Amino acid sequence: MLNISTELDRRSHKPLYIQLCEIIIDYANEHHLENGDTLPSENELIARFNVSRHTIRLAADRLVQLGAAKKIRGQGTFFIKKKK
Question: pTM of this prediction?
C-alpha cells in the first residue's frame, strides 16, 4: 500500500483534486524524487484515498499545468523537479 499518511479533508471547501495535488507534491519532496521518477499510479491513489479515477486525473492534469509532472500515455505520470 502507498505510504502516504496525509488524509483528504472531505469537509473542506478546497476541491479534492487540489488537495490531492498538494499531497502528491509533498510526497515527491519527502521522498526526494528526482526528474523522471514515477509518481504513484492511478490505481494506487484510488485505493489509498478512496476517490474516483476522474479526481485522480484532475489532480494529474493540475500537476502537469503546474510543471510538476508529465504524463506519458500507457507509462504513467512522472515527477519534474523544478529548477531553483
Answer: 0.87
Q: Phi then psi for 5, rounded to 5 degrees?
A: -90, -20
Rounded CA Rg of the chain: 12
Instruction: Return phi, psi of residue 51, to 5°.
Output: -125, 170
* Amino acid, single-letter form, for residue 77: T
Distance CA 83, CA 1 (A): 31
Q: Is 50 left (phi over 0), alpha (psi -120 to 50) or beta?
A: left
Q: How far apart are CA 36 and CA 39, in angstroms?
A: 9
Q: What pLDDT band is residue 14 in, cutting at 50, 70 and 90? A: very high
DSSP line for 6-66 = ----TTSSS-HHHHHHHHHHHHHHHTT--TTPBPPPHHHHHHHHT--HHHHHHHHHHHHHT
